[in-house]
């Protein structure tokens, strides 16, 4: 996950805390059929918000 996140968040020393913040973020989880939908609330930090949105897009493209 950290390697994926580094493509969108260039602060290498802060990547683990940023990922921890994203994973701890409150959001909504909904399972419909065989598809899981996760919705996160936006982050006030623009860099973190950008990285989180693009990390989710990358994960979706992997079709986990």
Tell me what the structure shows:
With 64 residues, the protein is α+β, with helices and mostly antiparallel strands. It has 3 helices and 2 strands, in the order ααββα. The protein is globular. It has helices spanning 2-6, 15-24, 46-61, and strands at 27-32, 35-40. It is 48% helix and 19% strand. It has one domain (2-61). The mean pLDDT is 88. β1 (27-32) and β2 (35-40) form a beta hairpin. Strands 1-2 form a two-stranded antiparallel sheet.
Name a few traits of the molecule.
64 residues, alpha+beta, two-stranded antiparallel ribbon, 3 helices
How many helical elements? 3
Please outline the major beta sheet: 2 strands, antiparallel
Following the backbone from N to C, one meets helices and strands in this order, namely: HHEEH
**Classification by helices and strands:** alpha+beta
End-to-end separation: 13 Å
Q: Shape from CA axes?
A: globular
Q: Are there runs of 5+ residues with pLDDT below 50, and where? A: none
Which band does the percent of strand residues land in? 15-25%
- Structural domain count: 1
């Amino acid at each position: 996950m950290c390697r994926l996140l580094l493509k969108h968040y260039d602060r290498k020393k802060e990547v683990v805390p940023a990922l921890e913040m994203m994973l701890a973020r409150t959001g909504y989880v909904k399972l419909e059929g065989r598809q899981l939908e996760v919705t996160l609330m936006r982050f006030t930090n623009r860099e973190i918000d950008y990285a989180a949105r693009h990390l989710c897009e990358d994960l979706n493209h992997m079709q986990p």
